[in-house]
Each structure stands twice: as structure tokens, then as C-alpha cells.
């Protein structure tokens, strides 16, 4: 979104002028951090306010937390634009939220049984699924991220199995499924995204 | 009626207090305003750097958009 980029550039330039010891490299890091910060605030505000008006606020928060936490370590495909991201994020979030409401009669164990092996296999094969805009070069970091992704996955299944309300359990389980679907090579192709190695 | 009168008085006092703050900000010297702006921008830059550094430890952004990461943040063996 060029408006957002322009805003971040203006703030970065203002910081460069008024704050001491900000060279070009630091300014680039600040610009990047600002973009992530402001873009996330805008997206979260839109998604959460929509969730509030639809009456699915708590469920949406649970989904976003479990989806975001696993995705941060496991990675996955990304949209090319701000609006593409917002649209896809909203579709996945609200689609999963309403699906978990529809499947509220099903016990979480019934969903965990097929989904867990699938997600475990995907993580083994593709995690961490980096992006051309954020390549993961270090082998040490790849190993750490893969381990962390597995830990988060197992924790999320344990939490979903222990929650008494099926709706929240299902939201967590579906979040793991969508994260893993986002890591598949087919998803990368559909979204026109590439890994850090260019493939 | 008494409650209503109290609430109105409280609201008026609140507006007067806010008005005092605005007047105080206007009367600040230019150099102090500039210093405050620099301080605010400094804090913003700290948060931005923190977010960027934290993001460098993760695989990708939680959301479905990944802006281009600066080369200085890419970890290598």
C-alpha cells in the first residue's frame, strides 16, 4: 500500500533528521519495523472490529493467536500486496471461525486424529517455509525454527484437547491446518510466491 | 437531579483541564516542542527496531504479507 509506505518513509526521514546516530542501515531497519508495526495494527483493527460486529470476537482472537504463533515459526506463502494480504487473512480467519462454529458438535479428538499427522508431515517436509522477501539462510536458524514449530504445534493440540468448549478447540485445530496448507508448494504457486532460494 | 448536576460539573471541569493542557502546549517554547518531538520519534524508532529485530528471529510475518527484510537483519551461519 503506497500510502502506508509513504507514511513509513516520512516517519523514518523525520527520525533520521532529529535523532542522532541513525545511518542508512539503521533507517532501513526502522522503516521495516515501522511498516510491520503499522500494517499489523491496521489489519488487526479491521479484522477484530469486523469480528466484534459479527459477534465472533473471542473466537477470532483465539484463531489469530494460534494461527500467528505457529506461522511465525513454520512460515508459509504470502500475498504480494497489503490488500491481498488483508483479504486472504480475513477469508481464512472468518472462514475458519464459522467452520469451527459449524463443526461445534464434533469432538476435537475426531479432528485432531486426521489433521495432526498431516500437519506433522508438512512441517517435517517444508518447515521453515521462508519467503523471497525474507530468506532463511542460516542452517542453525532453520533447525531452531523447525523445532519451535513442532513444539508450538504439539502445544496447540494439547491445549485444544484440554479445552471443554468444542468451538475454541476446533478454531485452534483449524488454524494449524491452514498454516500447514499455506506451506505447500502448490499454495506458493497459486499465490505467485517464492521461497528464499528463489524456487 | 443531583447526580445529573454532579456529572455535568465533572464534565465541565474535565473540559477546562484539557483546555489548560492545550494552552500549556501552545505556550511551550519552540525548542522544547522540538525536543519533545525528537523524544517521541526516538521512542518510535526504538519500538520499530525492536519489532524488526524480533521479526528477524521468526520465519515469516504472522500475517499473509511479508515486506522485504533489510539485509542487515538476515542471519547467517
Automatic annotation (TrEMBL), chain A:
GO cellular-component term (any): membrane
Full protein name: Accessory gene regulator B
GO molecular function: peptidase activity
Bilayer-spanning residue ranges: 46-70, 82-103, 109-127, 148-165, 171-191
Domain of life of the source: Bacteria
Species of the source: Acetivibrio straminisolvens JCM 21531
Pfam families linked: AgrB
Keywords: Cell membrane, Hydrolase, Membrane, Protease, Quorum sensing, Transmembrane, Transmembrane helix
UniProt record, GO biological process: proteolysis; quorum sensing
From TrEMBL, chain B:
Database matches in NCBIfam families: quorum_AgrD
Name of the molecule in the record: Cyclic lactone autoinducer peptide
Organism: Acetivibrio straminisolvens JCM 21531
Source organism phylogeny: Bacteria, Bacillati, Bacillota, Clostridia, Eubacteriales
